[in-house]
Specification:
By secondary structure, this protein is α+β, with helices and mostly antiparallel strands. It folds into 3 domains: 1-35; 60-192, Glucose Permease (Domain IIA) (Distorted Sandwich), CATH 2.70.70.10; 200-306, Immunoglobulins (Immunoglobulin-like), CATH 2.60.40.10. Helices cover 17% and strands 31% of the residues. The protein has 5 helices and 17 strands. Strands 1, 3, 4, 5, 6, 8 and 9 form a 7-stranded antiparallel sheet that branches.
């Protein structure tokens, strides 16, 4: 009896810490979930990065920090943190925020991406080329899927004196700000694969690049969404800059052969494409057409050409 007591008591002592540990882990998980607000998110920066909790830290002009700064190399892809719609963008020379975009989830939560890239690769030249800041097809109104590349990390705006980083904010549907730190700690590290992007991307072709005497360009072709028969949008880029967007909704009888059963109204036409600021297209400039996916997941470059020198 004595020997039984001596062996059973330590066994009970050994089990007790495991029960307490399980309870502590459960309590910690409950506290973690309670600290997170809004939908579960995908981490907004691809690859390796670093951040610490600086929400509420003082900033110039009496402001306080309303997000988290995520540090990574310049040009690192930025990912859609939820399924949603791009509702606002800035591409310019804002001295404070620089290039930015807002992503709104289907449930109304808003995600701010600030200080997107404004430099050529390997430089700090501030030339601010559109496709170095935003992924192909990213415009206001574009649907995106969680994990899709939507832009590129940089140091635009007042981030210029600092290391490149993304200022990331989360706002509730009523537009009040919340600390995203716990959301980032619990975020999924997921990026959509090339195969997933290609599966969701429209198909199409550019059939005409015609150079006008005044230095503008006529562009025509067709594009069809991966899933929907509704018309997609087509955008033309000149030297990496988004210049114009039109719906690919013109009748094109060849569609009956090109894409049987998908309908005929998938043609697009740009009459007089210019360069940025309405100037003539520079000699030797690359001109590309991007077809936008309707439901998100990835847009595609369907044709490029080079302006005569």
């Amino acid at each position: 009896m004595t020997s039984t007591d001596s062996t059973s008591t330590p066994a009970r002592v050994r089990r007790a810490p495991r029960r307490f540990a399980a309870l502590a882990a459960l309590a910690a998980a409950v506290m973690f979930v309670a600290a997170c607000e809004g939908p579960a998110i995908v981490f907004p920066v691809a690859g390796r990065s670093s951040f610490s909790d600086t929400f509420g830290a003082p900033r110039g002009g009496g402001r306080s920090h309303e997000g988290q700064d995520i540090f990574a190399p310049k040009g690192t892809p930025l990912l859609a943190t939820v399924d949603g719609t791009i509702t606002w963008m800035r591409w310019g020379t804002s001295p404070l925020s620089g290039n930015l975009l807002l992503l709104k989830s289907d449930s109304g939560w808003i995600y701010y991406y600030i200080h997107l890239n404004n430099d050529w690769p390997g430089t700090d030249n501030g030339f601010n080329i559109y496709d170095q800041a935003f992924a192909d097809g990213i415009t206001v109104g574009q649907r995106v899927k969680a994990g899709e590349v939507i832009g590129y990390l940089g140091d635009s705006g007042d981030a210029e004196p600092t290391s490149p980083h993304l200022h990331f904010e989360i706002r509730r549907p009523d537009n009040t700000v919340t600390n995203p730190y716990q959301n980032l700690l619990g975020a999924r590290r997921v990026q959509r694969t090339d195969a997933e992007r290609i599966a969701d991307s429209p198909t199409g072709a550019v059939e005409l690049f015609a150079w006008n005497p005044d230095g503008t360009v006529k562009v025509a072709g067709w594009a069809v969404d991966a899933y929907s028969n509704d018309p997609v949008r087509a955008s033309v880029y000149v030297a990496g800059n988004l210049i114009a967007t039109v719906p690919a909704n013109q009748e094109k009888r060849e569609m009956a052969t090109l894409k049987p059963g998908r309908g005929l109204n998938h043609g697009f036409f740009f009459n007089a494409v210019t360069h940025r600021g309405g100037t003539p297209v520079p000699k030797g400039a690359e001109i590309c057409v991007v077809a936008h996916s309707i439901a998100g997941g990835g847009s595609s470059r369907i044709g490029c050409s080079t302006a005569p020198k």
